[in-house]
Amino acid sequence: MSTHANPALLDVSEVSKSFGSVEVLRSVSLQVTRGEVVTVIGPSGSGKTTLLRCVNFLESYDSGSIRIDGKEVGFRETGTRQRRSERDLAAMRAETGMVFQSFNLFPHLTAAGNIMLGLRKVRGKSSAEARQIAEHWLGRVGLAHKADSLPAELSGGQQQRVGIARAVAMEPKILLLDEITSALDPELVGEVLEVVRSLAEDGMTMVMVTHEMAFARDASSRIVFMADGGVSAAGPPAEILGAEIDNERLRSFLARFRASHF
Amino acid sequence: MLGQIAYALPFLAQGFAVTLWVSLLVVALSLVAGVMMGVGLVYGPAPLRWVVRIFSDTIRGIPILVLIFFVYYGLPAVGIHLESFWAAVLALTLFKTAQVIEYLRGAVGSIPKGQSEASMAIGLTFRQRLAYVIFPQAFRRFLPPWINGVTDAVKGSALVSLLGITDLMHAINQVIGRTYEAMPLYILGAVIYFAVNYALSLASRRLERRFSFIRE
């Protein structure tokens, strides 16, 4: 039996970051255990997306540490704060999957090609093997028939589902979802969230920045509310979105949110 | 007139071979150097970016003729003696390299930042990102100005005749020097240059069409 009762898969510890004189993250700490779905909500400019981008080191952070499975993400573990080599960083990033608000599919590759690139070049799979995995995941997101379509031939919702397939096919330890439905027409949001829900049921560990409150309430094990670059409140959905919450910032955020969405 | 041309042809063919050889060297060398320096300009650390920026701006600000004379007549003063042929190739290559740097910067710069981020996120290294994601997309934008630049290189190679190198242009002038029949020979020269460049343009158009499926 392990002595650590519940070791965190993702351990964000006192991370701070500034863009020039603007402090976007103020000593943020967040632990995510295996199989958890954590939703990050908060007003724009609260640092949600920056936090997510620090987890796979698309952004560097000024102080604190981010560990995945015990391994520091962006810096060498030598005591001195030294950025990892390009090779090491690439290897670390392959451990996390990311889905973007603007899809960012590779326009010169087919749906299957988008998924196969990382499998071939990073995971070292043969073309046939990569193709098989790509087809499996395209099937999972309901796009088996679109394997040979180019991104420009797909709808936004379909593109985003390919984006999710591209990320999960790499078998990441943790999946980062950055406002993945914000750029979609309302009628396409459901099909994308359905895919996320089924991944959650499979036990995929996820950190998700979203404005879909209903989805956050139903699908997440924990909700983190960020404000002014810090974690202002965190807890199970019923508690955070409930009426009794004792947090003025959160209450006014939710009130404004409800006013604008209903 | 046809007789004069037939008489001149074997001699012109040699000059034409030199023209093609100079053009090929300049185009190939400037492509390699320009792409490398262009990548340095877009992705390199600040000091490297400044060096490339200063190089490119300086070279593009100098008339190519001045550059050729500078390399051939100027550099010996600092102990660099080049044969006329290589002095000409060097000068033309420097000039073309500065242009290739700008084509590359424009083409790569037009690729949205999200493409780099998405390829980082799946764990590709810098070289892999360039090779599999950025360059394949940038190629379509790089090609048209670059082919234009190649035709410029072929035309510009005529300047090497000023260093006494017997390229097509110089060969034509030499034949005229013997026959005193300028018109037919200059027309012939123009037709040859045009044929080469028109063939290049056609090839470019076909290539562009092949890559036109990429839409952002």
UniProtKB/TrEMBL annotation, chain A:
It comes from the Bacteria. One of its GO terms (molecular function) is ATP hydrolysis activity. Residues 10-253 form the ABC transporter domain. Coiled coil: none annotated. Its main location: membrane. It is found in: Cell membrane. One of its GO terms (cellular component) is plasma membrane. Belongs to the ABC transporter superfamily. The keyword Thylakoid does not apply. It comes from Mesorhizobium tianshanense. It is a peripheral membrane protein. Keywords: Amino-acid transport, ATP-binding, Cell membrane, Membrane, Nucleotide-binding, Transport. PANTHER family: AMINO ACID IMPORT ATP-BINDING PROTEIN (PTHR43166), GLUTAMATE_ASPARTATE IMPORT ATP-BINDING PROTEIN GLTL (PTHR43166:SF9). This is Amino acid ABC transporter ATP-binding protein (PAAT family).
From TrEMBL, chain B:
It is a multi-pass membrane protein. It is found in: Cell inner membrane; Cell membrane. Residues 16-204 form the ABC transmembrane type-1 domain. CDD domains: TM_PBP2. The chain crosses the membrane at residues 20-43, 64-82, 183-203. Gene3D superfamilies: MetI-like. Keywords: Cell membrane, Membrane, Transmembrane, Transmembrane helix, Transport. NCBIfam families: HEQRo_perm_3TM. This is Amino acid ABC transporter membrane protein 2 (PAAT family). It comes from Mesorhizobium tianshanense.
